[in-house]
Structure formats: structure tokens, C-alpha cells
Amino acid sequence: MSALLWALIALPLGAGTVLGLGGRRVNAVAPLAATVVAAVTLGLAVAAALARPGVEAPLFTGVRAGLRVDGLSAVMVITVAAVTTAVLAFSTAEFGRDENRGRFFGVMLLFAGAMLVTVTATTLPLLLMAWELMGATSWALIGYWWRQPHRAGAADTAFLTTRTADLGLYLAAGAAMAGGVGSLRLDALPHTGGAWLHVVSAGVVVAALGKSAQLPFSFWLSRAMEGPSPVSALLHSATMVAAGAYLLLRLHPLLTATDWAGPLVAWTGAVSALALGLVAAAQRDLKQLLAASTSAQLGFMVLAAGSRGVAAGTVQLVAHAAVKSGLFLAAGAWLTVLGTKQLPALSGAARGRPLVGGAFAVGALTLAGLPPLSLWAAKDEVLAAARAESPGLYAVGLAAGAVSAVYSVKALWYVTRPLPAGPAAGHGTERSAGRGTGHLARWAHLPLWVLTAAAAVLGVLALPGPADWLRTLLGARGEPSPHPWEAGVSAVLALAAVAATWWWLSRTPRTERAAVPWAQDWLHLERAAHALLVRPVMGLARALAAFDDRVVDGAVRQLTRGGSALSRLAGRVDDGGLDAAVGAVASGARRLGSWARRPQTGLLHQYYAQAVVGFALLTLIVLLVR
Amino acid sequence: MLTVVTFLPLLACAVLALLPRTVGDRACVLVWIGTAAADLALVVALWAGFDPYGGMQYEQRVRWMPSAGVSYHVGVDGLSLPLVAMVCVLFLAVAVYSLRETRRVRAAAGLFLFLQTVSVGLFVALDLILFFVFFDLSIVGMYFVIAGWGHGERARAAALKFFLYTFTGSLALLLGFIGLYLAADPHTFDLVELTRSNPLAGQGLYAGLVLLAVGVGLAVKTPTVPLHTWLPPAHTDAPAAGSAILAGVLLKMGTYGFVRIAMPLLPGSWRQYALVFVVVGVVSVVYGALVALAQTDFKRMIAYTSVNHMGYVVLAVGAAGTLVGSDAQARSLAVTGAVVQMVSHGLLTGALFLLTGVLYDRGSTYAIGSYSGLAAHTPRFAAATGVAAFASLGLPGFSGFIAEFQIFTGSLASQATATAIALLGILLTAALFLRALRAIFLGPPRLPAGIPTTGIVDLRPSEAAATVPLLGLALIIGVVPRFLLDVVEPAGRAVTELVAR
Q1: Backbone angles phi and psi of B59, in degrees to 5
Q2: Beta-strand pair A54-60/A63-68
Q3: Is the pLDDT assigned to residue B265 strictly greater than 80?
Q4: Cβ pair B290:A125 closer than 8 A
């Protein structure tokens, strides 16, 4: 049993390392090998979901590393493995022989493997390890075309932003240890004692919001669009951003253990869903629109986790993974074929390639929340949980749902325009080559349609029978189901928003549509981060470096200079003082000696005279003393 | 056995000196590599026969200066054995790297072999005077490495600064040792006996002054802010092999001194002044990272990250001395993390400095701004440096994470604010490494002025053989750390118990 679980994580991680290190040398086999590995991993994931294995090994003093597949993990491992397989299968057509395929497919497998560890880890250190490894591999994927500086910069932004949030997990681990949870088991975190419980909750919430690109961290997701489309297809669906939502769903008992964490998370999710939805609606670049919509849709999962809707959040996560990966693959296909991702330039893209266009249309309508497609049902489950929590949350969520219909239809409207006369004018190209290749392998449509079909029908999970089964699976019985009127309200709202948007886009010429700078620039979040954090920190760093050179080292230099000055002084004292004194003593002695030689003249009469004087003096002294 | 491990390199050094002049440079390096490999094999044998719960092992004690209470006393426990192993691995890597050395090869081989004896000797020494002798000889040896093989005139100035600064520190250390000697009854410099008798228990100010002297001596060597300014010039102007040993081995002599001498011998004062060490540690972490972030010289930047990484160790040992709020598990985690950090930093920073040497060899400059898109010319070199950088910024899967996670988790309970601030260090190191990687290796290819594209060669086999195994070892520790932690944990626990008595 445990071998199954080890294999599930070791296979993608091991194969990914081998392919990644192989680089160009394994270019020929990398796409096929990676797809096969992903498919086998999917098989292992299904087996693991049925068998529910668990393994443990000692890690640190009193802390173990554990992996286990429970209900939630079962859903997650299948989702992750399935989306990875589809995306990798599609990518085999994306990368030409002149590119480093080994690196791409290897790192993609590592990325997916890290996500698999994240969703099966039972202790915080192991989860954190996989969590950060996912961040690092996302850096390598976003910066895949590293010769272009802006892509490398985008990779740095993504890694640093998510790592900033990751500090929360480090903090949570220490706080849990301090609060008496020495095992650092995820299921024991709600039992953290005293004020430390608040620190643990705060740390986990910040880390999850950062990874899920919720406010105020959303901007890294916009920059992450610099990566190849298949990367976006994986990063925006079942991995990376989904990890944040997963963590909140996994640790929902922790959110209810304090009275502030649940509402905070729910409101952040609802506001993100609405605000990033508006951002998405303002975009003119298809990939940027989809990116903002990811943040917005993740907001519904975060809202669900914060309002105790574990089953609702899970359905939303799975359905959104299928929808978004399919949409990104379609967008990527146009990019490959047409060489552009600008919405106006994509006019008629769907008509030109009906197989891709059809898949995109189904995906977009699902994203719009139209009945009876999956996200409509999933969102109603989320909104039911939100309504049970607070009417305000429900209202914001409903509005966010309407906005999602607006941006989805906006994308769909552009790509279904009648074909323009000339070939698509390419701007905003993804590759240095400029124009697209004009070619997409026929069989590459298969994974795209598998994902699209899943996206359309996964709504069955919200039907009463399957929904009960899922709640039992997730151990989330007793969560609210949407009333029929709620489903009706959201359906009507979505339909109305779709119709209004379509009508407005068709009526208003492009030149008259007002640009909304703050929404187009993602609420200026990145600029704010630069102004408030990056620039001050760099300024501080430079100031401290100067301080280090001039003051700290300067003091040492002054000290040595003082030392040499002191030694010079000592030298002067030595030469001019001590040595001079010794010289003076010597010369004095010499002078005394020369005086003493004077009387010794060798003349007898002078000796007699000296004796007489001396005798007279003696007599005088004797007389005086008496 | 330990004596053989310690003095085998010195023996080889003597043999090299006596070999006739006709023996070529290459043969000298081969002798050096052979000796380093044999020494490493002996350490592996020591490790295989080591009992983690057996306390001090492989002890040897010979009378040296009995009237002064000095003896030749060596032994290893879970604190020193991993460091001895790391030292031997690093010296072997440096020997392999030096296959391409062309300047005064025989002298270089002899000097590094001498340094290896000194370094191993320090980590196995169980007598304060023996420790001090090796401590000072390491300064002497490194002085000649920097002055003799460094980059020109500036290297001699940097070597002099290094020598005077750290030598002054060692005098403070000696003062502290004499203070310990005088307090013990009967007078002795023996570490084991001093640990047992705890001579300065309840001695108040006197014990505090002894800790001050020992602390300053070790802090200079570690180095911690503000006693660190000898480090950047010494590294910038030292040869790559010298930098690798200086950062990888010599800095550990300071941090090792904290866990081997300061904590067990002065437990009362350590607890009393733990906050001082915590503050110094946190300041080193954040200040070192921030100053590194502003550097424009790649090697100088890595030198400052050493200040940051050693700061974590000082924070951890300080937190391990704070009993309030923490339990035995947390303190043991902190000390274990500190020791793992010493091993990890030795491997990673050694690899980074050797790779920096490759950069200088190709482009004749360390200036970050002179390079761009180097990955296009040297993909293997870029990959190795990238892996080393990510490992150094604490990416899970590498040894740095194993160390830093334990340090943070173990320190937060007793020193919450300080540890929370220190957490920023891993973010800053991520920023500075990504910034340097992007500037040097990514973007459009551009080489320093005057360097022809044809002159750029990717990582050579000898350079790869010197650096990749270091990274591989860091990876093994990062993925399956138990083989190391099984050895360190009992010793770490013993230190925390000694501090708490």
C-alpha cells in the first residue's frame, strides 16, 4: 500500500529531475516520456484514491513526515494528475525541436509532483517543502524563455511574491511548536494553545492567500502570464494557485478555531472575486483576462473555505481546474497558430479553427456560470455556504458571479467575430520568433476536448445524490445546499449579464469603449508593491552597504590608523624620551669621569697642595660640626 | 585513529616538501587529491563505526604540558563528526578544483594540506590550548593563501587585514580560556573536565567577563555584525579555492566554538546573556542580507550572505539558551538546526565560491553588471550556479532548508520577535540571489568587454567534479536528512541539557 503512495510522488519527481537535467540531450524523447509518466501517475492517483494509503517517516526531533490520501486528497490527486496529463499531452505539439524540451517537460513534472506532495502531506514541514518547491519550479517555468529580460523579471516577481506569503507557513510552524503541537501535524494545528493559535492561523491564511493570488498578492499572477501557455494551463488550474485554496479547505477547522480567521478569509475571497472579476473585464489581452479570472474564481474557493463550505469549495476547485486548463490550452493554441493574444487581433479565431473555437466557447460559457454547466452548480454551492454565513457575503458573491459572466462573454465575443479579410495582425506575440507557426497537430485537440468535456459535466457533483457522496467523502456532512430559488437567481443573473454584455459589445464600437486604467493595471497592485516595499528595501540596502563600508569598516580603519599613530608616538617617546635620557646619563657619567681625571696631574707639589686644602676643609667641618 | 585523520595531510605536506624538484606540478596535485580522498575515506570509516548515543568517541589523550594542565586530547561526538566530514569533503573538492592551478602548485598543495590538518585538528580538539593552537594556525595558513594566490596587490592588503583582525580576536579568545583555566580546580584546559566541573557556576561578573572574551573571539571569526568587515575584502581578493575554505571551514570554527566551548562551559552566563546573542544573530541575518542585496560584485555578495547564514546559527544558539517559553524539543531543534546549518553552509558556499572562481576565470571580473545572458554560452555552468543559488536561499530539497526550518521552528517559542524578523532573511536572500542570477545568466547574451565569445568555455570536467558533488551532498541532506540528523540530534540534545543545568 505504502509503495503505491511513494510511487505516486516519486515517479513525477524522479522523472522530472532526470528530464530536467537531461535538457536538450533528451529533446527527442522528452514529450512522449513526460506524457507517459503523467498518464502512469494518473493511474497511480486513481489507485491511491481507491486504496487510501498512508506512509510516515521520521523527519526532525518529534516531527514526522507523513503522506496520506484521504477524501479531499483523493479528489486532489486525481485532479492534479489528470490535468497534468492533458496539459503535457497538448504541450507535445507546442515545443519545436529547437527549444529545450527536456527542461520544459522535466520542470513541469517536478511542478506537478510538488503539488501531489502538497495535497497528500499530513505534516506542516513536508507540506512547506513541497509548497516552496512548487514556487521554485514555477519560477523556472515562467522564465522558460529566459533570453527576454521581462520574462525573467516576471519569474522573479512570481517567486518573490509567493515566497513573501510563504513566510507565513514558517511562522505558523514555529508558532505551532511554541503552542504545544510538537508533532506539527496538520490535523493537530487547531489545538495550538494560547495566543499562538492566532499566529498559526494568520500565518496559514497569509501563505494561502499569496499562493492563490488573492488580494493583495494578485499581481504576480498577471506577470506569470509571461510563461508559455501550457504553464499557465497547469499553474492556473490544478496546481500552484489551487494549492492555496486546498490549504484553506484542508485546514478549515483552524479557520473556525478563531473567531476572526473564517470571516477574514471569506471576505477576502469575496472581494477578490469581485475586484479581480472587474479587472478581468477590463483586459484587452486574452491571457491577462484569463489570469484575472483565475484570481476571481479562486476567490470563490477561498470564500467557500472561509464559510465552512468544504464540499462547495472542492467542487469549485475541480470544475475550475478543468475549465481553466482547457481555456488556456485553447488560448495557447491560437498563440501558436496566430501568434497573438490581443483580443481585437483574435477576431474570428474561433471560426477559423472550429475545433479549438468550440472547446473555447464551451469553456467560456462554463466560466460565465451559465446553467447547466459545472461552474454554475459549483458557484451556487459556494453561495449557499456564504449565505449561511452572512447575507453581505452572499450579495458580494452574487455580484462577482455576474461579473464572471461579463468577462467570459467578452472573450467569447471577440473570438467569434466574423473572420477579418487579411491575416491576423500579430502583436503581443509570445515568442521571439514573432508570428505564429500556423500549425497545430490534429491529435492535440484530444486533450483539449477531454478537459472541456470534464468542465461541462463536472456540475453533476452538485446534484443531490453525488453531492451527498462527495460530502461523505470529504467528511463535510451537514453543509448547506442551495435552495432551488438560489440556483434560479444565479442562473437568471448570469443569463442577464451575458445578454447585456453581448448586446453592449455589439452596439458600441471599439473606439468608444472607455479604458479603465486602474482595472487594466490590476488595481495598480504591482506598482504599489514596488513603491511601498521594493524601492524602500533597495534604498535601505544601498544605504546600509554604504554605512558598512564607511562607518563600520571605517571605524576599524580608524582604529588601525589610531594604532599606527600610537606606535609612532611611542616611537617618538622612545627615541626622544627614553633613549635621550639614557644618552644623557651616559654623557653625564663621561663628564664626571673627565672631571675626576683633572686633579691627577702627576705633579707632587700639586698633590701636596690638594692634601692641604682637603685637610683644611676637614678641620673646618670638624670645627663647624662641633 | 583521529590522530591519523588529523595529521595525514600534514605528513603528505612534508612529503611534498621533500620530493625532488623534478616532480611535476600535476603529480603534486595528484598526491594532494589522493591524500584528501584517503582522509575522507578514513572519516567515512569513523562515521560507520560511530554510535550516535555514545557521547564522545575515538578519544585519545597524551600528556603535553602537564604543569600547565595542557594535554593533547582529541575525540569526536555528534557535533564535531559531521563538521570533520564536511571539512574533508570540502578539501577534496578544492583539491580537485585545483587541477587547473598553474601558479606555485606545489606550495599551494602543501599549504592546503597544512590547512586541512589544522581544520580537522580544531574540530576534534578537546583541549582549549590545542583548540587555540589550531585556531591561530588556521589564520596563519589562510594569510599565506590569500597573500600568495590572491588577486594582486590588494590581496596582500586584504590578507594583512584578515590576519590582524582575526588574530586580535583570537587573543580575546585566549584571554577567555585563561579565565576558565584559573577558575577550574585543579587548573586545567581540558574541555571534557571543564564541561563536567562547570567551574564558573555562580561566579557572576567574572563568568560574564570570560563569556565576553570568548564571545568576542568567536564572533570575529564567525563573523557577526559588527565584527565582520574583514570578510568581504578577504573573500573578494582571495583565490576561489581559498574563499571556499575560508567561508566553508574557517567561519565554522567560530560557530563551532559557541556550541563546543561557550555553551557547555559557561551555561549560567550563556543563559543570562542569551538575548545578546539573539540580537547579534538577528542583526547579522537582516543586515548581512540587506548589504548583500546592494552589492554589485558577485563574490562580495556571496561573502555577505555568509554573514546572513552564520547569523541564523548565532540566533539559534542564543534561543537555545533561553529557557523561558521553550521546551526541550524546541531548544534541541534549534541546536540541531544550527549544526546542520554549519554543514550545509560549508557545502553550499564552498560550491558557490568555486563556481565564482569559474566566472572569474572566464570573464576576469566579478562585476555583476559586466555579464548578461551567460546561460547561452555556458548552460552547464549556469545550471550549477542556479542550483547552488537556490539551495543557498533555503529551497526545500536542499540542506539549507533542513537547517533553517529547524532553527526557525526551534527559536520562535522563546524569541518570537527576533525569529519573526530573522524570517525576513530568507526572503532577502531569495531576492538577492534571483537578482544576481537574472543579471548574470539570463537576458540577452553579453560578455565583459574584451572577452571573445570563443574564449568562453562551459564548466570543465574538473570544475564540475569539484562542485557538483557538493551540491549533490546538499541535495541528499535535503531529501533524506536522517543519516545526518541521527548523529547530530543526540549531541544537540546533550548541549541543550548542559546549558539548562
Answers
A1: -75, 145
A2: antiparallel
A3: yes
A4: no
Of A133, A147, A153, the CB nearest to B376: A147
Partners of B63 in beta bridges? B71
Q: How many helices (H) and strands (E) does chain B have?
A: 21, 2
Global ipTM: 0.94
- Nearest CA of chain A to the CA of B24: how many Å? 37
Identity of residue A223: R
Size of interface A-B (CB pairs under 8 A): 145
DSSP-assigned letter for residue B454 = G
Instruction: Please state the rounded mean pLDDT for residues A495-504.
Output: 91
- Surface-to-core class of residue B295, CB atoms within 10 Å of its CB (0-12 exposed, 13-18 middle, 19+ buried): buried
pLDDT in tens, A555-585: 988 988 998 899 999 989 988 888 889 989 9
Report CB contact under 8 Å: B373, A147.
Answer: yes
User: Is residue A461 domain-shared with residue A607, that is, in the same domain?
Assistant: no
Residues A484 and A555 in one domain: no
Residue A259 maps to a domain: no
Mark which of A490, A516, A542 sits at the end of a domain: A516
The answer to whether residue B358 scores a pLDDT higher than 60 is yes
Strand residue runs (E) in A348-450: none
Residue A581 maps to a domain: yes
Phi, psi angle pair for B475, to nearest 5°: -65, -45
Is the CB of B293 less than 8 angstroms away from the CB of A538? yes
Q: What is the pLDDT of residue A437?
A: 53
Across the interface, whether the CB atoms of A173 and B405 are under 8 A apart is answered yes
The pLDDT score that the predictor gives to residue A35 is 94
* A-chain residues near B401 (CB < 8 A): 129, 132
Identify which of A129, A139, A540 has the shortest CB distance to residue B401.
A129
Q: Are residues A474 and A407 in the same domain?
A: yes
Residue A544 buriedness (CB in 10 A; 0-12 / 13-18 / 19+): buried
Residue for cell digits 475541480?
A: A318
| Predicted confidence (pLDDT) per residue in A291-337, tens digit | 999 999 999 999 999 999 899 999 999 999 999 999 988 888 888 77
Full-model pTM = 0.92
Structural domain contains residue A274: yes
The residue among A493, A516, A539 that closes a domain is: A516
Based on the domain organization, do A359 and A304 belong to the same domain?
yes
Q: Are residues A400 and A544 in the same domain?
A: no
CA distance A556 to chain B (A): 8
- Are A428 and A312 members of one domain? yes
CA distance B195 to chain A (A): 25
Dihedrals φ, ψ of A536, to 5°? Answer: -60, -40
**What is the domain count for chain A?**
2
Judge if A340 and A425 occupy the same domain.
yes
Q: Which domain holds residue A443?
A: 265-516
Helix then strand then coil, in percent of chain B rounded to 5, is 75, 5, 20
Q: Determine the residue of chain A that is closest to B417 in CA distance.
A: A171
Tell me whether residue A138 is in a domain.
no
pLDDT tens per residue across span A73-96: 999 999 999 999 999 998 887 787
Nearest-5° Cα angle at A85, A82 to A89: 145
Q: Which chain B positions have a beta carbon within 8 Å of A130's beta carbon?
A: 396
- Is the pLDDT at A422 greater than 70? The verdict is no
Residues, chain A: 626
User: For residue B18, how many other CB atoms are within 10 A of its CB?
Assistant: 7
Question: Does residue A510 sit in the same domain as residue A534?
Answer: no
